[in-house]
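[Discussion] Sanity-checking designs against the backbone

I'm trying to build intuition for which residues belong where. Below is a structure token string of 234 positions. I'd appreciate it if someone posts a full sequence so I can compare it with mine line by line.
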């Protein structure tokens, strides 16, 4: 009886593995993918990096909310041109059965956009696939001069919702010296800059500064002065 169960388990395992292998797409299938990336106002965004990712699913009911496929590898990447357009081809590797195109984050050193990263499943492997996206937020640089009026309880953390913060303390304000911080802001809407700190008694506080909307894409300049009375408990 034990031998029968053991043999059944081996057959079941081989059958499952064979099914997974059979579900893989053949190697070398070429797919052309193209589209246009813009902001909400249909303004093109250049140098947006798009990447094709390969996955292997062992279930026919794959979704974004369950039965996550196994990541295999990055297949290829491309960037949008001055008109926000891209057009490239890629080939299947024979190792996966799901392919997605994904918008990559804008580089921290010079942000051009935010509100990503969106990904889309490529459903026409072997035939042209078009992916357009108009939900990015186009950004431009703004240098903020921060003056400190004899405040305390350092360090201060600088936060702006469309500016990526590095994963370290390099953006912190640590003394009453004047500093300049570059943020990346959107057009046509007021922008808020947040200065966070924790007092010695453990109370968290924030000071909020609002800049008026601007309609230019060149470097802009703002200046604020931080006072003790600007901080509010949170």
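Best answer:
Here's mine. Compare freely.
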């Amino acid at each position: 009886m034990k031998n029968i169960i053991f043999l059944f388990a081996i057959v079941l395992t081989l059958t499952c593995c064979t099914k997974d292998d059979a579900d893989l797409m053949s190697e070398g299938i070429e797919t052309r993918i193209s589209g246009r990336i813009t902001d909400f106002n249909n303004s093109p965004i250049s140098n947006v990096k798009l990447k094709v990712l390969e996955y292997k699913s062992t279930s026919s009911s794959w979704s974004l909310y369950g039965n996550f496929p196994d990541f295999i590898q990055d297949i290829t990447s491309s960037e949008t041109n001055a008109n926000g357009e891209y057009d490239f081809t890629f080939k299947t590797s024979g190792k996966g059965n799901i392919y997605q195109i994904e918008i990559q984050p804008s580089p921290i050193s010079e942000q051009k956009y935010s509100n990503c990263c969106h990904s889309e499943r490529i459903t026409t492997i072997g035939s042209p696939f078009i992916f357009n996206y108009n939900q990015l937020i186009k950004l431009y640089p703004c240098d903020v001069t921060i003056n400190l009026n004899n405040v305390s309880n350092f360090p201060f953390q600088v936060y702006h919702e469309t500016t990526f913060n590095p994963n370290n303390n390099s953006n912190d304000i640590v003394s009453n010296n004047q500093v300049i911080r570059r943020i990346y802001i959107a057009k046509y809407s007021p922008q808020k800059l947040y200065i966070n700190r924790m007092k010695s008694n453990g109370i968290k506080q924030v000071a909020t500064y609002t800049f008026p909307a601007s309609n230019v894409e060149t470097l802009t300049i703002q200046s604020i002065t931080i006072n003790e009375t600007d901080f509010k408990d949170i």
